[in-house]
Structure formats: C-alpha cells, structure tokens
Specification:
The structure holds 3 protein chains of 3 kinds. By secondary structure, chain B is of the alpha/beta class. Chain B is built from 11 helices and 12 strands. Chain B folds into 2 domains: 2-103 and 224-272, D-Maltodextrin-Binding Protein, domain 2, CATH 3.40.190.10; 104-221, D-Maltodextrin-Binding Protein, domain 2 (3-Layer(aba) Sandwich), CATH 3.40.190. Chain B has helices spanning 2-23, 33-37, 40-52, 63-72, 83-91, 123-132, 145-156, 180-188, 199-204, 240-251, 253-261, and strands at 26-32, 55-61, 77-80, 99-111, 136-139, 172-175, 193-198, 211-215, 222-229, 263-264, 267-268, 271-272. The chains are: A alpha/beta, B alpha/beta, C mainly alpha.
Chain lengths: 231, 276, 237
Amino acid sequence: MPILALNDVGVRYGAVAALRSVALNVHRGDFIALIGANGSGKTTLLQALHGLVPHTGTRRVDDRGARQVMVFQRPFVLRLSVWNNLRLALWLARVPAAERSGRATQALHHAGLAALRDRPARALSGGQQQRLALARAWAVRPDVLFLDEPTANLDPSAKKEIEAMLAAFAHEGMTLVMSTHNLGQAKRLATRVVYLDQGMIRADLPTARFFEEHLDERAELFLKGDLKWDV
Amino acid sequence: MGRVMKTALFAALMWAAALAVAQDRSIVMSSTTSTEQSGLFAHLLPAFKKATNIDVRVVAQGTGQALDMGRRGDADVLFVHDRVAEDKFIAEGFGLPRRDVMYNDFVLIGPAADPAGVKGKDVVAALSKLAASKAAFVSRGDKSGTHAAELRYWKLAGVDDPAVKSPARPFDYRACGCGMGPALNIASSSSDAYVLSDRGTWLSFKNPGSLAILVEGDKRLFNQYGVIVVNPAKHPHTKTALAQAFADWVVSAEGQAVIADYKIDGKQLFFPNAER
Amino acid sequence: MSAFGESFQTAVALVVQADPVLLRTVALSLAVSASACAIAAGLGLAAGAWLAVITFPGRRVLIALLNTLLALPSVVVGLVVYLLLSRSGPLGAWGILFTPSAMVIAQTVLVLPVIAALSRQLVADSLRDGGDQLRSMGARPFTAALLMLLHERWAVATILLTAFGRAVSEVGAVMIVGGNIDGLTRVITTTIALETSKGDLPLALALGLVLLAIVGAINALIGLAQRVQGTSLAGAR
C-alpha cells in the first residue's frame, strides 16, 4: 500500500502544462530520485506530491504518509538563532511544548550544528544553512521528506555532508523524494529513479535497473548528456 | 519594539486619566485669533483661574468660525467682536443674552512711505483714496470680526465689493482667507500694501518691516467685544454654570480691572466698558 | 540668511535653558505621535499582513485604495475626525474634542494607511522568498505573514519610524481637532504655525530645528540599536 499516491495528476500554470497525467506511488522506505532536464516538471511534481499546488486528478495520502516537510534548493531560514529556528519549526508542526527542547537538541546534534546553536542562522554558510534546514525537517519526524535539488548550490564538501545526512535519514526509515541534477548522487542514494520529460513520467525503475537497462530514447540521451536544450 | 509601544500606550492612558480629572473644572472658550495673539488671555485667564479655580481652554479662530463652533455646541462660552453676527447668533437661539466686555480699536496700517497718501484721521476717506490708487490692500477674507468691520468701511467709502476691479478703482485687493498675523506678514513683505488690523495684534506683531499706523482715532474704528454663554436649551451638555461664572467675572469690577491692566510696551490695549 | 542664523541661536538657547514651555510642548508632541503610532502599528501591521495573504475578488481595488490613502492630506483627516467628535456629530457624547485624545485618534487615522500599505508590500515581497518553506513547515497563511514581520523586524522598524515622522511633523489634523489650546493641546507644529502667524519667524524656525533634532535623535538611536544587534550578527545577510 503506497503511503502517497498520485493518479492522473495534471498541473497547469496558465497556458503551460507543467505536469501531464502523472501517476506515481510512493512506498514507505522509498528513496526516490527525480531526474530530468530543466523545465521537465521535477519541482512541480514535488509540489504536487506535497500538496502545495492545485491539480487535476487525485492525490491520496495514507495516515502513514501524513507528516511531510520540504527542503528547498536555497534554504530559507529566519533572522533568528539556529536554536530558535528549530524551535519555531517544532511549534509550527504542533509538537507538544514539553518535547520541543529535547527534539531541538537532538536535531542540533544529529546535524552537527551544536556549536552553532546560538549563532544567527543567517550568518551560517550555505552548507550549514542547508544542514539547518534538514535538521529542522528531521526534528519534526516527517513521514516523507521532499527535497528540491538540495545540494545544487553547495561546494563538494558541503555536498558530502548533506548526502551523509540524507543517507542517515533513509537508514532510520524515513521516506525521501528528491529531485537532482546529479546522476552520481541519484546512484549513491536512491532506491528508485523516476525520469521526467516535458511534464510526463517516462521511466520509473529501481536504481540499478534504471542505470543498466536500455530505456526511452530521450532518457538515454539525457543520461549521456546529449539531450538538447530546445525540447 | 513591544516595550516602546507599551510605554507609549501607558503614557496615553495616563494622559486620558489626567484629562478626565482636569475636565471637571474646565470650559472651552471659542474666541478669535486677534484676541489670542494680542496676549490678553495669557494675562486674563490666570487671574480668573486664581479667583474661581476654573480652567479656560481657548480655541482661537476667526469670529465666523468661533460662532459656528458655538452653534455646534463644541464651546461653552464665546468671546468675540462682531455685534451684528453676535446678535444673529443669539436671535437664532444658540446663545444667552450677550454682555459688553471691552473695546479696542482698529488701525489702518500701511508702508511708512504711504504711496497712496491715506494718512489722517478718517478711515473712510483713507479707503476712498486707496481705492483710486495703484497700491494694494490685504484683506483677511475669513469672516472674522475684523473682516466684517473692513467690509463695512469699504461700503461707507462707496465700494460695495472691493474685489471687483474697475478703471476708477485700480487698487489691488488681496484676500488671503487667513488670520491677522498672516495678513500682516503679507503686507509687510510688500512695498505698497495696506491692511486693517486691530491694535492688539499690531502691537505684538514681531515682523513689521517698514509698516506703520497711518489712520487711527476715527470713532468708527471702535471694536466692541462681547461675551456670550452658549444656550443650554440647544446644547444641554455644555458647562453652563462654569461658563456663566466666566461671563460674570469678566464684566465684574475685578475682571474689568485685569483687562485695563493689560499693557504692551506700557500702552493699554483694551478698554473695559461693561455695563453696571 | 540672518533669519536662519538667529533661528539657530534661538534653538540652541531654548534647548540649553530647558525652557519649561518648550519641554512641555515637546513632551506632548512625542506622546501624541508615539501613542498614535503604537495604536496604528497594532492595527496596521495586522491589516498589512492580512492583506498580503488573503485572496478575494476586489482585493486589488482595496490595495489601490489603501495606497491612495498614503497621500491623505492631514487637514482632511483633521476635518473628518472633527466632524465625528463634534458635539453635533455621531461621537460627540465622548466629549474628547479639543483634548490630546482627539489628536491621538486623528494621527492614528493618518498613519494607519502608511503602516498597512508598507507592511503589506514588505510581507508580500518576503513571502515570495520564503512563503513556500513556511507553508511546507505547516504555517497557515496569516501565521506565515506574521512570521515574516518578525523576520523583517528592522524593515518594520523603518516603517514605524516613517509613520512617526509623518505624525510628529503634521500640523493640519492636530490643529483642527486639538484647537491649539495653550497648555493643553499645543504641540511643536501648531506652535510653529502660531509663531509664524504672529510674525516671530526666528522662533518658528528654531522650533522647527528642535523638532528635526528630536526626530534625528530617534533615527540615530534606531540605527545604533541595529548596529549593536548587527555586530552580534557577525556578517548576517
């Protein structure tokens, strides 16, 4: 039983169809990598899964997939301390007051941010802010974590740190859906790869199969980096 | 920011509370800008407060507006100087019978060089000469007692509407719709402008430039002040008893003496003439 | 230029001697305008936040109207509030005409659109950056708007300072509803108007300088506070 299911879902922005007739089932424990060219609909698909945009078709959320958080490419943190950003997230997620301090502390340590606890969150580096965003997400114990190109703006060492965190989350049993440009990242982390082209899902396979078998012609071109821009 | 807001709010509430207490023995008096600017109230009202412990809050406007304020019931007592308008006010039922309090006089002010040649003792003749000249006249044009008097003098000089230009009357008539001070300011900034003013405002005016008194002493320049208590029949909420206390005091021997006592540069400004 | 020189000397003399009338007038100016800004801030920030997130037909018209009210002449506000508070008006029974309370009300009406319009713009712009993230974290639209006000608190401080400047420097509204009563409702701006009409121009200018100095001091304090906060922010963007 999928914890999150989209069926025949379409999203339009004015005259443009960003997603067309998408069907996707997310199962507990999945680590799905969404790949595709710019404009293929990855972000829109994430938003549709998360329930952030109006759409046609059906979106079904199981109890076991109810708590969801999204982490964006550019982390948005408030002009508060790292600690208060965490507490705010817990408050917004309606976590009982008594538990908030404990969970915030755990999240701080889990993300390796304990030393930066009282620093203004905006003073952190890009990588540190993204770690904070992930800590913030982890603190509320989401069932599903959506990530929109979370390492696109980061330098290689920061990238490694984030990937390590995501791997740890997956290991703890969290379900993750992540869009990425980085094929190596998809290979390293994901259990399943979904390829999007022009708003439609062209391929949806377990990672190993995806990278080894022959696929959709355009998917092949994409993987080789030969897919032209003017599509 | 929250602390600042709280402090400000607290201050505001304290104000309101203090106000509520102060409201009790206070009245609002509607009067004219010329009277206030003469400085009379700063001299008169403390004496009244000492005698009766009543605060008088003066709102100073032109006579027309002062009377309108009485019609709306926003004042408890009026202190103005336009007999005709006052009588109308009382006839309309808005005021109790008026009492004479004091008089001062108007003076015709102009450039010391007197380009229109109006200097003398006759205000009507002066205005006739002025109308035939190329000089300018600054009018308050604000329905004040001074403005009403000015229009009466023009009529006597044969000028029904001074704003209307004609070859026989080439003078420049400038109506500013303003108080006595601003009108004097306008005249003082010009080299050939004349203006009718009450003596009190003129004596305390601090920007005379090259202006000087050119006509004074004409009996017609006599400016009578009256005190009117707002009629409680029309506006029951007004503080009639306290207002009456003021009206009674200002025509009493004591009040009249205080008025006579007010001087600028050793010169008496107002001449008490209440009936006994 | 002599009028300016004389004014400057008069201004310094007034301040140095701590002339009691001046002090009382300044205190009243600050109290009235600060109170008005406090009240308008409570209402205006809430209204601005609400307008930034609500959607309903005619919203754009309402926003255009609000922005138009930024140019509301203070004398018009004074007139309207006067007619409301006059004994012959609907709220005459309150009996607060010609008291500082009436002045606070008039100035609140005056600066409320300023705060609402500017905070609406601020929140709308901020939500474009972080609105999705806050929503994802479970914030309802109005909660997100309020969080953005917290997030942009220094910009909010600038908005409130703008409103305060507008209030403390206006003369039309407080003149009409306050009556410029000596010792009760006379503030710096109405005193300037009075002294100007009495022809005492140096004194009027001097008072103007005093007013500017006060607002300048408040601005400097806010700037200082921001810098103090900033040093502990060590490079925050």
